[in-house]
Specification:
The structure is a homodimer of 344-residue chains.
Chain A lengths: L15 H9 L2 E6 L5 H9 L2 E9 L4 H17 L4 E3 L3 H10 L2 E7 L10 H8 L2 E5 L22 H13 L2 E3 L5 H10 L5 E2 L16 H9 L3 E4 L3 H4 L6 H15 L4 E3 L9 H9 L25 H10 L4 H19 L7
Parallel strand pairs in A: 1-2, 2-4, 3-4, 4-5, 5-6, 7-8, 8-9
Chain lengths: 344, 344
């Protein structure tokens, strides 16, 4: 069930220069967790997006993850004009030329690996190029952003990071606890990403990141993907200008190559899915039924990406910086991380 | 626990011309189900083998199969000088030049797909290029060689065959029932193999195949891999000459391009594993403990492949035919099947 758009007017960027810049840029979304079908993919194409880190597993174990990946392959086989399963940044660059959507499969958890580090390479072989270490709760790998105690990176977590480094799977810290995040940056020989979070100075929230974590990640060659999810921008009342000013300040503080976007779009789901995200199988659903938050009027889905380009121009960022933030920074990070590292 | 070899003398082929032919040929074994490690792979190299269909799952479901494939990837990562994971016939041809062993992952059952046809493509993506439809007992796909009743190919079986055709996974009928085998040949739009069986006219046994099945397979462009497993050659008393005469008669009856070898080597296992093969999880192990059969003195493992070349020369086959039987026929079949088929 896609949300109804409030106005078709919103789809158009406000200026000709923004439209030209948006069309020229290779746009990569650092994270979406939509309920994918042809219509949902078409929204990305309408928004000018060429590459996306699409979540293929959150609470799933190995067998359920296989099923999810099987669904992706079937979707690709049935929609070759629209969808290509990507393994490299060049696959995304090619998708831009073909007017297709290049999907990098991603995990928002390490549950798909079970307790078996060898499954890192197995899922990497299936096209899983990005994995978040934990999702909201403590797991075998480390502590999470909503857990009162953060164990730090575990011994298994160190093995997982070493395997991810070796095979070329990008580590994502978005829902990870701060202590585990710092441990991960220390343990990893490859750059790390926070694909979809904002700084706590923008909105104080367990899902956002203190300066210490953001600086550790970006100083080690990693990136922060600024996130549009209502919770981490302070709700639907937050303006496009405020969001873009946050991006501009991050560019100023951390450099133009360290910042990208990770919208966290959750298109085409009903409320049952937000309950699954919140509770998985680890706790009962509880009294209060989980519901999706309301998105700000200026960003309700991938079709609104042109508005971000417009907003970034308006807060004074130059075109090169904006092209970096819209996607080229992600592409460069993927070029660096995806070939893997020799692990002695 | 590798069996002790009776004599190092046995390793050498008996004639210079056999040795030259063996060295020149690209040798492919249609099936081995050994307990793989570096030493076991070295046996293949010693025997002059460049490519092998190595069984990665028999009774395993999806999750356990992932673990088995993870083990293969680790073995390959640790032994790059010796082992390469192959996806094409050209990978095997290259391995011959590199003096390495190219492994095609194979299933001896369809249990790894569970009840989900989408997993065909998922496991194909992991390098599983060959799958037998059933292993000894009736399953979701069809009837098996030891089952008193053969259901024929099921509706799920038709979907599986269609998916295997589409993605380019070779169908194997070795342990499949005769009725299901004939149904499979009818249903498949790509050639099919019997990777490791002999004709019932050589040894009457449920694991061997009547003329009707062999002819259906080979007339549809498929192949029969002649098998060395003691059970299907009539035990250890059978001579190399008798085996090679069987091959020569098959070449005579079916043509020189329809015949290959599938040794069914089972190296480095203890008796517990033969119990697992026989009983899986579908029946208790029973009173009599399963034990491995004794192999004939002239063929106890992959190192004895040169003796086959010698034997095939001695029964009067020409060099081109022998090169075909030793591996080139498999390579041509792989070239045909592995790219997949367009399914309307």
């Amino acid at each position: 069930m896609a949300e109804n758009r409030t106005s078709t007017l919103l789809k158009a960027p406000a200026s000709d220069s923004a439209a030209a810049l948006h069309t020229a840029a290779t746009i990569v979304d650092g994270l979406q967790i939509s309920n994918w079908d042809r219509a949902t993919l078409e929204e990305l194409r309408a928004g000018g997006i060429s590459g996306v880190n699409a979540t293929a597993a959150v609470w799933e174990g190995p067998a359920d993850t296989l099923k999810a990946i099987g669904d992706w392959y079937q979707l690709a086989a049935k929609n070759p004009d629209l969808l290509t399963m990507a393994r490299t940044a060049d696959d995304i660059r090619r998708a831009k030329l073909d007017n297709r959507i290049a999907v990098l499969l991603g995990f928002q958890n390490t549950s798909s690996f079970g307790d078996d580090y060898k499954l890192v390479e197995v899922f990497h072989e299936l096209g899983v190029k990005i994995a978040q270490l934990t999702y909201n709760i403590q797991n075998l790998v480390g502590g999470a952003c909503y857990e009162p105690e953060d164990s730090g990176l575990t011994r298994f977590g160190r093995t997982i990071i070493s395997e991810m480094n070796r095979v070329g799977m990008l580590i994502d810290l978005s829902h990870v606890g701060n202590r585990t995040s710092l441990d991960a940056v220390e343990a990893s020989v490859a750059p790390i990403a926070i694909t979809h979070s904002n700084p706590t100075w923008f909105v104080e929230n367990p899902r956002n990141k203190p300066d210490e974590v953001i600086r550790a990640v970006t100083e080690a060659g990693g990136m922060l993907g600024c996130c549009l999810y209502p919770l981490v921008i302070g709700g639907k009342k937050t303006t496009l200008e405020q969001f873009c000013q946050m991006v501009a300040r991050l560019v100023d503080e951390l450099g133009p190559t360290r910042i990208g976007l990770g919208s966290d779009c959750t298109r085409n789901w009903d409320d049952k899915f937000v309950g699954w995200l919140r509770n998985g199988r680890w706790q009962p659903e509880g009294e209060t039924k989980a519901t999706w938050p309301e998105w700000p009027e200026w960003f309700v889905g991938p079709e609104d990406f042109p508005r971000l380009t417009d907003g970034l121009l308006k807060v004074g960022l130059d075109e090169t910086t904006i092209r970096g933030v819209l996607g080229e920074n992600w592409l460069n990070l993927f070029d660096d991380v995806f070939p893997g590292r020799k692990i002695s």
